[in-house]
Write a structure and sequence with these properties.
By secondary structure, the protein is mainly β.
Length: about 120
């Protein structure tokens, strides 16, 4: 069983920065894909950034150049550094772990609120 616990959300002014962390516990494999999604009110959940153990990344165009994903495999933790935040970045941010192959699975954290407002 995999558990994901996010931290680091909050209220920030436009142009500010936040760093989200997601600690995974349980049976974690280096081949697991970890990353972040977000869901704004009235909108579908969307990919923000994901990272494989390669590492290779996939970052949404809307945040490219402002958000950076990183991963510490020794700590089973993935981070999202968010800079130059905009009001449109306001959403609940969810950590995700996806496992491919014979033991495939898709796991979500409880979400952390990020609000960008003056």
């Amino acid at each position: 069983q995999v558990q994901l616990v996010e931290s680091g959300g909050g209220l920030v002014q436009p142009g500010g920065s936040l760093r989200l962390s997601c600690a995974a516990s349980g049976s974690i494999f280096s081949s697991d894909i970890m990353g972040w999604y977000r869901q704004a009110p009235g909108k579908q959940r969307e990919l923000v950034a994901i990272m494989t153990s390669g590492p290779s990344t996939n970052v949404a165009d809307s945040v490219k150049g402002r958000f950076t994903i990183s991963r510490d495999n020794a700590l089973n933790t993935v981070y999202l550094q968010m800079n130059s935040l905009k009001p449109d970045d306001t959403a609940v941010y969810y950590c995700n772990l996806r496992r491919l192959g014979a033991n495939a699975g898709n796991y979500w954290g409880q979400g952390t609120q990020v609000t960008v407002s003056s």
